[in-house]
Amino acid sequence: QKEVEQDPGPLSVPEGAIVSLNCTYSNSAFQYFMWYRQYSRKGPELLMYTYSSGNKEDGRFTAQVDKSSKYISLFIRDSQPSDSATYLCAMKSGFQKLVFGTGTRLLVSP
Amino acid sequence: NAGVMQNPRHLVRRRGQEARLRCSPMKGHSHVYWYRQLPEEGLKFMVYLQKENIIDESGMPKERFSAEFPKEGPSILRIQQVVRGDSAAYFCASSPPSGGSTDTQYFGPGTRLTVL
Question: Which of B27, B54, B78, B88 is deepest in the core (most CB within 10 A)?
Answer without folding.
Answer: B88
